[in-house]
Amino acid sequence: MKALVLAGGRGTRLRPLTHTSAKQLVPVANKPVLYYGLEAIRDAGITSVGIVTGDTGHEVRQAVGDGSRFGLEVSYIPQEAPLGLAHCVLIARDFLGDDPFVMYLGDNFLIGGIAGLVGSFEEGGFDAQILLTKVAEPQFYGVAELGPGGEILRLEEKPEAPNSDLAIVGVYTFSPAVHEAVRAIRPSGRGELEITDAIQWLIENGFRVHSHMVDGYWKDTGRLRDILECNRIVLEGITPGVAGQVDRMSEVTGRVVVERGAVVENSVLRGPIVVGADAKIISSYIGPFTSIGRGCLVQDAEIEYSIVLDGSSVDGVSRIAHSLIGRNAEVSRASGVPNTHELMIGDHSRIQVRA
Q1: Which of 37, 245, 247, 285 is buried deepest, with most CB atoms within 10 A?
Q2: Nearest C-alpha neighbor of 55 from the set 88, 90, 18
Q3: For 237-354, CATH number?
């Protein structure tokens, strides 16, 4: 079995961050979301992976390389434009050959891995298998409508008026039959070849399509609140450890990771949090569910429930919360009345806030 990982798309819901960075490389607990998917594929016993890339292909290639760091053999498949998930299968035909495969959306976060999904697909002899989960806003997802016996009646991509609250999780398994399906369908009203249309074609033409509910935790990390929630979930399970320097004036409680080369002076760290390598935390408060990237500076500041990417600085600002701060950004003090700040800042930005 092979794997097809989709790492293209424009990430419009995470702009301005994704103007300059691949959405699949936004970190959760200081590790890119894409890495979690690649590790899940490896742990399911799959080693041959094709990664479909778009405008940020160079960045993805730099981050993943030949895949050897994950125990994988990675090939890259450029997509000229975001023309749909089924289009990704179409252009990956030579790589996939006649092998069954897992298709994994690189910005999806699934706790518990995919070994069970792969095993049930192989044992069941299905032509396609989809995962479903109940969501509060199904209009943002592919949606499945099931019959009284649990059979799939209809699939629809991002419907304006959903017929159910069952979203299709971004991990699929297919037999070679899907290649006929993606050639048979036509672009949707969005101008894309939808994978939901391809699966619907398989259903209507008598192929075996199976679905089951996700037991564990899943998120599509296309929105700020979803990335922060994933960060929270991962941080709750980290193993605490201090490899950097923490002085006697500092207070460290809960699950806290301080990576090698990091320095903490006269500060309060309340986990779960992770402080990246070579970061400096000086006279500051870092509250629960916060990830501080490599080489960051946090000084005379308060941050909680946030993600700060590599190389950024936060200086003299009180109570930043529910925020995602891009790489090499600078957040500094401005005059005025103190407030709680909610920020989403793109890479190489500079911002002044009232503090």
Answers
A1: 37
A2: 18
A3: 2.160.10.10
